[in-house]
Amino acid sequence: MIARLRRAYRRMRLGTRLALGLGALSLVVFAVVGTALTTYMRDYLSAQLDTQLAQAQIAQSKSIADYGTLSGKKYYSWYYAVYDVSEGTPELRRPEDPADLPKDVDDFTSLARAQSAAHTELLRTEHLKGAGSYRLRACQVEPGVVLVSAAPLEDIEDTVGQLITIQVVTFALALLALVVFGRRMLRRGLKPLSDMASTAHGIASHDLTESAARLPLRADGRDGGPEVDELRTAFNTMLEHIDDSLAVRAEAEQRLRRFVADASHELRTPLMSVRGYADLFQYAAANAPEERDRHLARLRAEAARMGILLDDLLLLARLDAAEVEAPLRPQDADLVELVGQAADAFRAGRPDHPLTVLAGPGPVRLAMDPLRIRQVVDNLLTNAAVHTPAGTKVSLEVAVVPGAAEVRVADTGPGIPPDDRARVFDRFYRVDKARSRSRDRGGSGLGLAVAQSLVRAHGGRIELTSEPGATVFTVRLPVNDGRPTDR
User: Fold this and answer.
1) Is the pLDDT of residue 430 over 50?
2) pTM for this model (two decimals)
3) pLDDT per position as a tens digit, 174-192
4) DSSP helix, strand, coil percent of the chain (3-state; round to 5)
5) Is the CB of residue 396 less than 8 Å from the CB of residue 357?
């Protein structure tokens, strides 16, 4: 039975639970208040009756002492008994009226004996046989004479019983009204929570599998007080966060699709070339031996191109999972020396682009992976040469600023359009959208993405400023232990 009640209670709505809890609390309060009021009323009426007994016995004692009778000093339904106790044993005098004594006077006699021994007024509450509950009082009339009076408690009990009945009816009606109207008020107060629950159900039924899925629902309204308003604000903030996460997810999915498509194309091109040159090599080996070496060289070139692409993809994957496998091997190295080596290699491989190197008078030693930083500088120089016409001037500068060392690669080419500047570091992104470019006019679109990832892995950042005639890539590396910082 208890388990069934618990299950029924758990199925109730919050407003009903609160109303029942408020009703139970009110019931306890009503019980405490009713008990205190009833006790006070009973004690007050009993004290009043004791006072009435004392005042009545004063007049009765004087009448007995003066006239030996109680004539004119009696109250309706009271009992009176006069005892002579001159010899220590209470002797009941003959009553003036047989109705003055109950059928059983043992309680009167016992109280008279106790009074003669105590020599002071005594009060007791006794249940007289055939008469009910009475309040007995014994006092000394004169030496050797004791008067015992008994007043009925029926009126007090009736008054207290009526008071209890009134309290029960009143408290029951008040409790019923409190539960009924309190439940309505609670339901109205909890309506904003119900609205938020409906909003949550609406969101749950919303299809979030779409790439551009958004949450059009929000919790609105201003009712419910500051606590509900705070919850509503937190709820809407959570929905905004989910919206942002969905937008990021959709963008990541689009980038992933674009990445897979571009990677497939970039890998497919050298693979098709390898297959074609392999067929040509086989044909030349059988029919034109003088062409065999040329086809073999092209075959190796395409294989090397595909190997570079795969190496870049593998490096990016390792950088993305740097928490699992750190791709860097930091050591103390001179940035100026490293930049000089990159400049020498660039001059040898790109003689059509004059290069100017600006470096400080002394070495700039950092904790870094020299091979990876060299790769960053090479990628930036290659990018400047690939995307500018022959004869374009390129400059390479090393500078030290507070807390960091900077490497700036600048060119005087046509610049990068504003719409493309924010995406030049995306993987496989090219300012030139055409995929069928000549091999000498660009690579796979991973060079800048690899450079940015490597710089971030060193705890630095790479910045771009561009306008017609001046494009500058600035690599900023922290002067610390080379470990990644906040990206």
Assistant:
1) yes
2) 0.48
3) 888 888 887 787 777 777 7
4) 55, 15, 30
5) yes
Q: How many alpha carbons fall within 13 Å on the CB side of residue 390?
A: 5
Angle ∠(372,374,375) on CA atoms, nearest 5: 60
102: closest CA among 177, 152, 29? 152
Q: How far is CA 320 from CA 311, 313, 331, 374, in A?
A: 14, 11, 21, 20
What is the distance between the alpha carbons of residues 291 and 287, in angstroms, rounded to a whole number?
9
Q: pLDDT per residue over 14-40, tens digit each?
A: 767 777 788 888 888 989 999 999 999
Cα–Cα dist 38/162, whole Å: 10
pLDDT one-digit tens code per residue, 132-172: 899 999 998 888 888 999 999 998 999 999 999 999 999 88
Q: In this predicted structure, what is the pLDDT of residue 289? A: 66
Comparing CA positions, the residue from 163, 2, 174, 142 lying closest to residue 67 is: 142
Q: Which of 210, 329, 316, 341 is nearest to 263 (CA)?
A: 316
* 394's tokens: 């390129």
Q: Report the run of H or E that residue 3 belongs to, with start and end.
A: helix 2-11
- Beta carbons of 47 and 67 less than 8 angstroms apart: no
Secondary structure class of 466 (helix, strand, coil) = strand
DSSP class of residue 468?
T
Residue type, 44: Y
Choice among 70-79, 276-285, 387-396 with the minimum mean pLDDT: 276-285
What local confidence, expressed as pLDDT, does residue 292 receive?
A: 66
Q: Quick one: how far is CA 481 from the chain centroid? A: 38
What is Dmax (Cα atoms) for the chain?
Answer: 166
The rounded distance, in Å, linking the Cα atoms of 97 and 71 is: 10
Asked whether the beta carbons of 427 and 349 are under 8 A apart, the reply is: no
Cβ-count burial 211-240 (b if 16+ within 10 Å, e if not): eeeebebebeeeebeeebeeebeebbeebe
